[in-house]
Here is the input.
Amino acid sequence: TTNGLNLMLCPVTLPDGSKNTVSVSRVEEKMGLHGSPTCAVEFDHAEAFLLGERGNGFRAMLDLMNAARLGVAAQGLGIAEAAYRQARAHAADRVQFGIPIIQQPLIKSMLSQMAMEIEAARALLYRTAALSDRMEATEIYLASDREDYETDRVTLQAELESGQQLLRFLTPLCKYLATEVANDVSRRGIQIHGGSGFMAESSAAHYHVDSIITTIYEGTSEIQASFALKEMGKGALDPALASLVQDLKSLRKNHPEQVAQLNQGIADIGNALPTMLEDISYAMLNSKRICDMIISVMVGTELLFQADASEEKGALAEAYINRKMLEVEFNAKRILSGDATRLARYDKILGL
Ligand SMILES: Cc1cc2nc3c(=O)[nH]c(=O)nc-3n(C[C@H](O)[C@H](O)[C@H](O)COP(=O)(O)OP(=O)(O)OC[C@H]3O[C@@H](n4cnc5c(N)ncnc54)[C@H](O)[C@@H]3O)c2cc1C
Here is the structure.
C-alpha cells in the first residue's frame, strides 16, 4: 500500500553546516543516457526533513510524476524528431543502385511512417500540454478573489473538474505514445543508415539507446496503459469520445470521408469495450490495445483539425487515418473474438 508514505528531503549539508551521512556509493554504467548520471545513494542514519503533510507523500509524488510524464513524452518526441531528421538526410544523400535510397519505395514508406508517428505524438502532447496549462490557470483564478473573467465561477469549477479528469486520462496516453514512437522511429533510423547505423559512434545508434529508457522511467508503458485503464474505469472515456464526436461534426463538411472513418473507429471502440471489461484480467491483457485504439481516433481528429487549418497537412492526416482506422478495426475484432481464457493458452505456451 502507498498509504502513510512520507515525502522526505535529505540534504547533503545540514542546516547547521555539518555534513549529512548521505553519499553516492556508485555511478551506474548504463547503455545510454550518458548525459544524466544515475547513482546508488547510501543513507547511513542520515537526517531528512518532511515535505508536505505527513502520510501524503505518495500523492505529492504523483503530482510530480504527472508533470514528469509529459516531460518524458517531450523527451521521446525530441529523440524521435532528431532520429527522423538524420535518417531523412542520410536517405537523401546515400546512393545505391544508381539512385538515392530515399527514392526506394520501401525507404520512402518507412520515412513517411516515421514522420506520421512523430506528428501523432506531437499532436497528442501539445493538446495535453495546452489542457494542462488551461487547468492550471483556471485553478489559480478560482483560488483568487478575482471576478473579471467572462465565465462564472460555477461553470469554471465544472470545467476544471472535467478538464482534470481528461488530463489524468491523456497524460499516461501521451507518455505511452511518444516514448513508444521514440523507440520505433529511432530503431528504423538505424535501419535506414544500414551498417553505419550499427556503429557505436553513430548518432543513429545513440538516439536509439537513449530512447529505450523513455518507455521505462516515470512508469513503464505497461504502467501507463494500466493508469489509462483505471481512468476509463472511473468514467473518463465516455466524455472524451463524446467530445471527439462533437469535434468531428465541425470537420465533416471539408473532410467527409475521414470523418466517416473516424466515427467508425469510435464505434469500434464502443463495441469492443463491454467484452473487454467483462473480466479484469482480460481488460488488463488488452489495456495497451485499447489505448492504441483511443489514441488513434483522438490523434486522427487532431490531425484532421490541422489539415483543416493548413492544406499541406492533408496528406499526412489522410495517410494516418487510413492506416490507423484499419488497425482500430483489427484491434476491435481481436478483443471481440476472445476472453480471459486466452491467458490460459499463454500459460501453456510459457509452461506456467
Ligand atoms: C536511468 C534511470 C533513471 C531513473 N531515475 C529515477 C528517478 O530519478 N527517480 C525514481 O524514483 N526512479 C528512477 N528510475 C527508476 C524507474 O522509474 C524504474 O526503473 C521504472 O519505473 C520501472 O520500475 P522497475 O525497474 O522496478 O521495473 P519493474 O516494475 O520490475 O517492471 C519490469 C517489467 O514488468 C512490467 N510490469 C510491472 N508491473 C506491471 C503491471 N502491473 N502490469 C503490467 N506490467 C507490469 C513493467 O512494465 C516492465 O516491463 C530510474 C531508472 C533508470 C533506469
